[in-house]
Amino acid sequence: MAGTLAEKVWEAHLVRRGTGGEPDLLYIDLHLVHEVTSPQAFEGLRLAGRPVRRPDLTIATEDHNTPTLDIDRPIADETSRTQIDTLRANAREFGVRLHSLGDADQGIVHQVGPQLGLTMPGLTVVCGDSHTSTHGAFGGLAFGIGTSEVEHVLATQTLPLQPFKTMAITVNGALPPGTTSKDIILAVIAKIGTGGGQGYVLEYRGEAIRKLSMEARMTICNMSIEAGARAGMIAPDETTFEYLKGRPHAPEGADWDAAVEYWKTLRSDDDAEFDAEVVLEAADLEPFVTWGTNPGQGLPISASVPVPADIADESERVAAERSLEYMGLEPGTPLRDVKVDTVFIGSCTNGRIEDLRSVAKVVKGRRKADDVRVLVVPASARVRLQAEAEGLDVIFKDFGAEWRNAGCSMCLGMNPDQLAPGERSASTSNRNFEGRQGKGGRTHLVSPLVAAATAIRGTLSSVADLGLADEVDLTTFDGSPLDGVGAPPITETVVDLPMPVPAGAR
Amino acid sequence: MEKFTTHTGVGVPLRRSNVDTDQIIPAVYLKRVTRTGFEDALFAAWRGDPSFVLNQEAYSAGSVLVAGPDFGTGSSREHAVWALKDYGFRVVLSSRFADIFRGNSGKQGLLAGVVAQEDIEILWKVLETRPGTEVTVDLEARTATADDVTVPFQIDDYTRWRLMEGLDDIGLTLKHADDIAAFEEARASWRPKTLPAKHWPTETVEPARAV
Ligand code: SF4
């Protein structure tokens, strides 16, 4: 029978098929753990006298609470410190691998898996975090779970699950310059709504998706959850294999060959039936920004803040009014005139090396707008090290940005990186809920390119607004278009940037 | 999870309807990293009131809660069940429960029995006339008895079976441990393992400082 990618991965993990309304029991290949959702799960095991069944399929990292400054000093906030200390004690007690603050492999859990080569096609991946959908970019089934499910997976390495529905999202054509994969997903969410994906696994396909680099694909799958979906997936291809090859945990030798052969079968059959389908033309896309307090309230940057009175649907109108009030925006204001106080570049959505490279490319040799605070937070310590090796940190510092240590940071403001009440940010993260980045904080979700241009001009901007079209080279350092659109597989990236110079020499 | 057949303990009449999970345990307690020790958080907003039922000596050691209709509505927090159990409750009786609360209860070994509202009223009368009266809950027979009053309660067969067997979700899954082991046997060798840990050479990460 013809099957979708999601169905194939599901079938390959069936420990037991449920009968009579009972859920299926699915095997979990990789369980990622962080400090916020795991303490009670470990305690549950302890109370029941159960071990972690497969410590060798489990990996933990500290990310949500970690400070991004002074990481060598004790964590000031008590709740944060307790959660991190608890994770450390649990990891020790149960024999779970942990990458702690200060370790070169510490970072946001959704960066650590792919970066170590643990995230692969055809896996089931879970984590007590909704953005686990990120890992679906490799062609696996990856989704977030709650604390009691975390305990269940720790104890049994399986989960009882009811099947999902499937939705195909086809993006045809090629992205125009200055647009990125972030704009694709923001456009998808604006189109189907924040509840549009409810109950579905989304599979992204089409020419525009195939051309994306691995990291750009992760950005898309990451935000599937903002469309209400449980997971997002992209069928693996050469881009996927090239990304994985040679990573620490990638299969080697005969295992690699066997894996690739299997991975090539992981695609939806031509006659597979999806429960729903959505089609988008990439050529129509513009850089997207959100204006409201949910990720579905987004518009192309050339648009104006919506006028609620013009919205026909009663509940949408009320929602828009409430959002605009919270956001402190006048209906009808061109989005390009909206002034921001802070630009945040980071998170599991857009804190990877390609994101940092594309920002560096735009801001190189420029100064940020005077009153804007710019925070650059790499997704992991490795990303930070890589960026430093390429000299990106110097570009950011010269630009006037703060160069931080890795973590979730201002994406959710559980650590000291928060917006003040009423402060407005352009953020490359994934959620613009009320208070998400700090109590009273106002968030506009944007791509890294828009974030960079906004940091230069001080108002929401795209790279086209810089008026320096010829000066800003819209390709990455290896000559492929920015944000990895159409990037060739990553090999040894040639970087033509100056190496870091000692501070005194400048 | 302990097997549940019968339980006898002090009955606590809670004459309130629509007790939501925020009232059972307020959100501020959700920051904790433990799974036990939530007894102080149970009904936190009411515990300061000396006339609140649990603040009365005769009821303070209660283990069978007899509540008004629509118990456990609101957010799906599992902490609500933890707090009730930590306080010492083994049984909650009400004429109507929120679905998620009832589901969470079954998973955590708290018996949520549905009793007709007239019968709840009768139990309330008995428990209020003689504070400290013990209630015997017989899961096998699906009855609750206080003094000379015996009322029936409803619970679905599946949850009843689980409670009587003392099986939580994990226990249920582990009944299929053989299937899991067989699946693991056949698992392809290219699938990743986190241990032994492999990584690139360790490098020193410079702590960032405020500018
Ligand atoms: S970066 Fe933000 S969205 Fe991603 S895991 Fe951290 S808190 Fe969640």
UniProtKB/TrEMBL annotation, chain A:
This enzyme's EC code(s): 4.2.1.33
Higher taxonomy: Bacteria, Bacillati, Actinomycetota, Actinomycetes, Micrococcales
Known function: Catalyzes the isomerization between 2-isopropylmalate and 3-isopropylmalate, via the formation of 2-isopropylmaleate.
Gene: leuC
Cofactor binding note of this UniProt entry: Binds 1 [4Fe-4S] cluster per subunit.
Organism: Myceligenerans salitolerans
Keyword terms of this UniProt record: 4Fe-4S, Amino-acid biosynthesis, Branched-chain amino acid biosynthesis, Iron, Iron-sulfur, Leucine biosynthesis, Lyase, Metal-binding
Recorded metabolic or biological pathway in which this protein acts: Amino-acid biosynthesis; L-leucine biosynthesis; L-leucine from 3-methyl-2-oxobutanoate: step 2/4
Residue ranges of the region described as Disordered: 419-440
Enzyme class of the recorded protein, top EC level: lyase
Domain Aconitase/3-isopropylmalate dehydratase large subunit alpha/beta/alpha: 7-458
Family, as annotated: Belongs to the aconitase/IPM isomerase family. LeuC type 1 subfamily.
GO terms, molecular function: 3-isopropylmalate dehydratase activity
Protein name: 3-isopropylmalate dehydratase large subunit
Automatic annotation (TrEMBL), chain B:
Enzymatic class: lyase
EC number: 4.2.1.33
Domain called Aconitase A/isopropylmalate dehydratase small subunit swivel: residue spans: 1-112
GO MF annotations in UniProt: 3-isopropylmalate dehydratase activity
InterPro entries for this protein: 3-IsopropMal_deHydase_ssu, Aconitase/3IPM_dehydase_swvl, AconitaseA/IPMdHydase_ssu_swvl, IPMI_Swivel, LeuD
Keywords from the UniProt entry: Amino-acid biosynthesis, Branched-chain amino acid biosynthesis, Leucine biosynthesis, Lyase
Catalyses which reaction(s): (2R,3S)-3-isopropylmalate = (2S)-2-isopropylmalate
Pathway: Amino-acid biosynthesis; L-leucine biosynthesis; L-leucine from 3-methyl-2-oxobutanoate: step 2/4
Gene3D superfamilies linked: Aconitase, domain 4
Subunit relationships: Heterodimer of LeuC and LeuD.
Function per UniProt: Catalyzes the isomerization between 2-isopropylmalate and 3-isopropylmalate, via the formation of 2-isopropylmaleate.
Alphabetized PANTHER family for the sequence: 3-ISOPROPYLMALATE DEHYDRATASE SMALL SUBUNIT, 3-ISOPROPYLMALATE DEHYDRATASE SMALL SUBUNIT 2-RELATED-RELATED
Family note: Belongs to the LeuD family. LeuD type 1 subfamily.
Protein name: 3-isopropylmalate dehydratase small subunit
